[in-house]
Write a structure and sequence with these properties.
The complex is a heterodimer.
Chain A lengths: L1 H20 L22 E11 L5 E4 L5 H15 L27 E4 L2 E6 L17 E5 L7 E4 L2 H14 L1 E2 L5 E10 L5 E7 L7 H13 L4 E5 L15 H6 L9 H12 L4 E8 L14 E6 L2 E9 L4 H17 L4 E5 L6 H5 L1 H9 L5 H18 L3 E5 L1 H4 L9 E4 L7 H11 L3 E4 L14 H5 L10 H5 L1 E8 L9 H5 L2 H10 L7 H17 L16
Parallel strand pairs in A: 1-3, 2-4, 4-6, 9-10, 9-18, 10-11, 11-14, 14-15, 15-16, 16-17, 17-18
Antiparallel strand pairs in A: 1-8, 5-6, 5-8, 7-8, 12-13
Helix pairs in contact in A: 2-3, 4-6, 7-10
Chain B lengths: L1 H16 L21 E11 L5 E4 L5 H16 L4 H4 L4 H8 L3 E4 L2 E6 L17 E5 L7 E4 L2 H14 L1 E2 L5 E10 L5 E7 L7 H13 L4 E5 L15 H6 L9 H13 L3 E8 L14 E6 L2 E9 L4 H17 L4 E5 L6 H5 L1 H9 L5 H18 L3 E5 L1 H4 L9 E4 L8 H11 L4 E3 L14 H5 L10 H5 L1 E8 L9 H5 L2 H10 L7 H17 L15
Parallel strand pairs in B: 1-3, 2-4, 4-6, 9-10, 9-18, 10-11, 11-14, 14-15, 15-16, 16-17, 17-18
Antiparallel strand pairs in B: 1-8, 5-6, 5-8, 7-8, 12-13
Classes of the chains: A alpha/beta, B alpha/beta.
């Protein structure tokens, strides 16, 4: 704590210097928001001063090629968003100025007229039951031309159209209470990385459905495409299993802090409608204390002085019953969660309890295991086999790799530590050299707080900045912002996640070095207000300022 | 960062080694009071309370303020219930309860004995008495809340409402208890900055509600700053017309009245701060002549610095302005700011230099002193007691003992806040402590402990010096706080400060306080305050 305080002190000291350096604070917001700038920044965008006015009441989308309910519902959603984008008061710099005159844009030489339709051209057929997959294509082209015709959003897949609709809605900025403005623009856009996730921990604190829906909404506003659901942990087991309902009956905090099968399906459908995959994590063999409330036999009894002390450690890797249980459990899980990927956890396995247990020792002697790492290896291998037989692909936390386990080369390693020797870069280097795919989270832990608008530290992290060959960089599949919920619940999750996770979203979507932090700050100022306007309780990103709602 | 991560690792490690039970870091208490009362004796014997039929009886003095408090607390008590579906209540449980040997009966009402009349009272003052006695005895008729003042009764009602806890049936439970309670410090504040971000009136009212749940009694309203000027002045309406972010980011006179009345009903004083001569750039939107024009290479560069202390017009403006403020804000105290005055712009301005020469002012500190003396005189003539940030004192401004100094800096290299507290009290000035209670300083995890760790009297000094500590304030600067995160950022972190200022020194250990705070945060949630989790994993019912 002493050292930590000194760091704080130093920061305070630096803060004082910074303050002296810019001793004159101008009235008004510290960072002026952009108008109609897109977050995350598109790969390519050309804009001109020519603009249209969109009257939300008169505006409509026109489907000119493939169509399906999934598309229709999305169009309706974005019409609602566009309708809600107008403001309650005129946007005017000078407040004492009289209310601006009627339709001021008509006097502007750049005014091209009213944009009443946007053509939506989807080339691949879409079905209502479509779910996004890890291979989904998200590329789209958006053309707002000055000729009025040829104003079109086109993509080969529904997922590309969804991203394009989001972009279109962000290009619109309010001029007064009835009208929106959009500048003529050509955008050619696609994600830099295919896996752009947000992890939400619903075990430390239960997050109610409504907040999960809002989180998924906000993810769509940031073009994130993976909802990593860390659904269980030591503290509670809120997932209601069909085969083993006792797990949540006894392991949830209370009988109503659970996600029923119908809740889970709702989340999956809701996310799919927004082009977001739901990757569930059932973390084993550590972080499983809550499983033991209903099934203590799954866990290792800990011993003190040769007798069980009533405490439990990680899953017991020595019993066949453990594996047959997990076999049945994961059979259910792969059916319920339709994504091809499954997160198996495998992080932070403490050996103390295994060490204390004489049965474990005996088993190890019998099977020629000489270390607890090997024992962990045994468990993880068996679990990986179970899951591979169920045709699921797996993601695991980095420990399984750094502990030297033999991993199949289609296993994805999620790198989360940044204090190991060499930091995340070294771990990533090693994992990709071993031919494994990597997801980065180490620099995007949302529970690490610092004063002020701390999105910049997330924005500073470059996922391919780990050395390595081109082949190795190919194995970097993206990353995830992680919201561990020790001190986060329904009351602060929205403001804690947003707009901080927006920084991660841009790093994963936009081109490398797409923009400087200073410029990004202005766009994020707008984007935060945009999220506020859409009902997301995003906190201020930068410093003093305001939103017009 | 490396070390910070290590300390996090350490926490993770601890988590791993605590493998017993569902390892909640702190199990909530049931019916424990926050902040901890000065004296409390509790018994196993308990009553059941039916919120539907429960009433308060004023057995001595009564007034509207009291009636409204009753209504408020009846509603709160109603909200404390958990619906029967949640627990699966059955009528057989009634018999079980009544068979319990600790069951005393049903508490249908609480007698409230207020000794001093309260009809004429409108707002609380700095001299307010908050002492109360609450007795829940085994004889229903003897159960009584008594206090000499309405403010004491308000604190006692809050305590009473916190003693009630939900059971697994449609009733609340309260243990027989005797409490003698009073605050350790008279000034227990929360400062909210409404200039960096505008905080809507609704959120301010919720903040005041939450303050009363924590027995805080001063709402320090940092109304204006460089960034915006949201206070709508009657005499100078252009200040907010031009200095507010937009016309909807303004506190009208009626908003201000609403806030003051709402606060008063909860025994909370409202102290307005109009910070000058620094932190005042937004005043210049409407009245640039108030500010110092900054120069580069001998010509004005279009920028403005602190208030111009050399013009007579400045002081006649402030006489008028503070005349209004003194009327609008009835509290006897007025916060005049005076922090972080930077001399760069003054230095650049040839007129200022000339003025200094003419008046034999040799340094910019003296110039600042000159300004502050004049402002202090203005407030003195309005019979207001001034509060200033410590900068005025440390910059050797001559202050009289009627001025209160608020300490906010904690630079350890020069002895931290304790050294400042020692110096200021040695000079005979009363102090307020905020240095260790800056809510904008974030750390991962439940960081209320660092606020709880601060003992206001731990500076070196004699008893007379310590008697000058009026209390302190938690400060919520709003660079990155607005309506969306103010509730969860302030609560329950400011609750730690509230307990340090109300309860006896070393009233409780961290570990026990953590359990009480776990309950208290859930209690605030239940009352509609979006307090964040205080400790770690857990849940509220």
């Amino acid at each position: 704590m002493y050292v930590l305080r000194n760091i704080l002190l130093l920061l305070t000291f630096l803060g004082v210097i910074a303050q002296i350096a810019c001793y004159i604070v101008e009235p008004g917001p510290t960072v002026r928001a952009t108008k109609g700038a897109v977050w995350p920044k598109p790969q390519r965008q050309i804009s001109s001063d020519s603009f249209y006015i969109v009257r939300p009441q008169a505006f409509e989308f026109r489907v000119v090629a493939e169509n399906c309910d999934l598309l229709q519902n999305s169009l309706q959603r974005y019409l609602d968003i566009i309708n809600g984008s107008t403001v309650s008061q005129p946007i005017s710099k000078n407040l004492v100025q009289k209310r601006h005159y009627y339709k001021p844009w008509r006097a502007d030489k750049n005014f091209m007229g009213y944009l009443d339709t946007l053509d939506v051209l989807l080339t691949d057929p879409c079905k209502d039951i479509d779910l996004p997959t890890h291979e989904m294509k998200e590329q789209y082209i958006l053309n707002i031309t000055s000729e009025g015709t040829g104003t079109v959003l086109s993509a080969s897949t529904i997922w590309g159209i969804l991203r394009g609709l989001e972009t279109f809605s962000q290009l619109l900025h309010a001029t007064d209470e009835k009208a929106l403005q959009i500048n003529c623009t050509t955008i050619f856009d696609f994600p830099r990385f295919s896996h752009r996730g947000l992890l939400i921990d619903t075990s430390r604190h239960f997050i109610p459905m409504i907040k999960l829906f809002k989180t998924i909404d906000a993810m769509a506003y940031n073009k994130l495409n993976v909802f990593h659901w860390h659904i269980t942990d030591d503290q509670s087991f809120p997932y209601q299993s069909l085969k083993y309902p006792e797990l949540s009956e006894m392991g949830a905090y209370t009988s109503w802090y659970i996600y029923t099968p119908s809740d889970v399906q709702k989340i999956i459908r809701y996310a799919a409608a927004r082009g977001i995959r739901v990757v569930v994590e059932f973390d084993t063999p550590g972080h499983t204390r809550s499983w033991g409330e209903a099934f203590p036999d799954l866990l290792t009894p800990c011993y003190a002085n040769g007798v069980p002390n009533g405490q439990y450690g990680p899953m017991d890797p020595t019993k066949e019953s453990t594996y047959s249980f997990l076999q049945k459990f994961f059979e259910e899980v792969v059916k319920v969660f339709s994504d091809q990927y499954l997160h198996l956890g495998a992080d932070e396995v403490g050996y103390e309890c295994w060490e204390s247990n004489p049965d474990i020792k005996e088993y190890m002697e019998q099977h020629g295991l000489t270390s607890y790492r090997q024992l962990e290896d045994l468990f993880v291998q068996k679990l990986l086999d179970i899951v591979h037989n169920l045709k699921a692909k797996t993601i695991i936390w980095e420990e399984a790799f750094t502990n030297g386990l033999q991993l199949r080369n289609d296993t994805v390693v999620q790198v989360w530590k940044d204090w190991s020797i060499g930091g995340w870069k070294w771990t990533t280097y090693r994992a990709t050299r071993a031919g494994l795919q990597v997801l980065l989270s180490a620099c995007w832990y949302l529970d690490h707080l610092s004063n002020g608008g701390d999105w910049q530290k997330y924005y500073d992290c470059e996922p391919t900045d780990f050395g390595g060959s081109e082949q190795q960089k190919e194995l970097m599949k993206g990353g995830e912002a992680c919201m561990w919920a020790e001190v986060v619940n329904e009351n602060n999750i929205e403001s804690r996640v947003w707009p901080r996770a927006s920084a991660t979203a841009e790093k994963l979507w936009s081109a490398k070095d797409a923009e400087t932090k200073q410029e990004a700050a202005k766009r994020l100022e707008e984007h935060t207000c945009r999220m506020n306007k859409r009902g997301i309780q995003a906190q201020p990103p930068n410093s003093a300022g305001y939103c017009i709602l | 960062m490396f070390l910070l991560v290590n300390s996090l690792l350490f926490v993770l490690y601890l988590d791993l080694t605590f493998v017993s039970g569902l390892n909640l870091p702190a199990r909530p208490t049931k019916g424990e009071v926050w902040p901890k009362p000065q004296l409390q004796v509790s018994y196993q014997k308990s009553y059941l309370v039916n919120p539907q039929t429960f009433t308060f009886h004023a057995v001595a003095e009564n007034c509207k303020l009291l009636e409204r408090a009753f209504d408020r607390y009846l509603e709160i008590i109603n909200k404390s219930m958990i619906s029967s579906e949640t627990y699966g209540y059955s009528e057989q449980d009634d018999d079980m309860y009544e068979a319990n040997k600790e069951f005393v009966g049903y508490l249908d009402s609480l007698n409230v004995l207020l000794m001093e009349p309260c009809n004429h009272i409108t707002v609380p003052a700095h001299t307010m008495e908050e002492h109360y006695i609450l007795n829940i005895t085994t004889e229903t008729s003897n159960s009584i809340l008594s206090a000499s003042t309405i403010w004491g009764i308000l604190r006692g009602l809050e305590t009473f409402s916190q003693l009630l806890y939900s059971t697994d049936r449609e009733m609340l439970k309260i243990n027989c208890t005797t409490i003698v309670d009073y605050p350790r410090f008279p000034h227990r504040g929360l400062m909210v900055d409404t200039s960096r971000h505008f905080i809507p009136v609704g959120k301010i009212l919720k903040t005041l509600d939450a303050m009363s749940y924590n027995k805080l009694n001063v709402f320090h309203w940092h109304l204006t700053d460089d960034d915006s000027f949201p206070y709508q002045s009657t005499k100078y309406p252009n200040l907010s017309k031009m200095g507010a972010y937009t016309k909807s980011h303004v506190y009208s006179q009626s908003d201000v009245k609403t806030i003051i009345r709402f606060a008063a009903e909860r025994g909370i004083r409202v102290i307005a701060e109009f910070d000058t001569p620094g932190h005042s750039i937004s005043w210049g939107k409407a009245m640039p002549e108030l500010l110092t024009t900054c120069y580069t290479n001998g010509v004005p560069n279009g920028r403005y610095g602190p208030i111009d202390p050399t013009k007579n017009s400045t002081y006649s403006f402030f006489e008028n302005f503070f005349d209004e403020v003194a009327e609008v804000f009835p509290d006897q105290y007025l916060h005049l700011g005076a922090d972080e005055v930077l001399p760069f712009c003054w230095k650049s301005n040839p007129n200022i230099k000339k003025f200094m020469k003419e008046h034999n002012i040799e340094s910019y500190k003296e110039l600042e002193n000159y300004y502050i003396q004049k402002i202090l005189n203005i407030s003195h003539n309005l019979t207001k007691k001034p509060i200033l940030w410590e900068d005025a004192f440390t910059n050797s401004v001559n202050l009289t003992s009627s001025t209160t100094v608020q300490i906010w800096k904690d630079l350890k290299i020069i002895g931290g806040w304790k050294r400042t507290a020692d110096k200021v009290t040695k000079a005979g000035l009363p102090i307020l402590l905020s240095a260790c209670w800056y809510l904008d300083r974030l750390e991962s995890g439940g960081d209320w402990r660092k606020f709880y760790n601060c003992e206001p009297l731990s500076f070196i000094g004699n008893d007379q010096q310590k008697a000058l500590v009026l209390g302190g304030e938690a400060c919520m600067w709003t660079e990155v706080v607005n309506q969306y995160n103010i509730e969860s950022r302030v609560w329950p972190r400011a609750s730690a400060v509230a307990e340090k200022l109300w309860s006896a020194e070393n009233a409780d250990t961290y570990w026990n306080a953590a359990k009480r705070l776990e309950e208290h945060a859930c209690r605030m949630n239940k009352r509609g305050i979006e307090a964040q989790p205080p400790n770690g994993a857990g849940f509220c019912i």
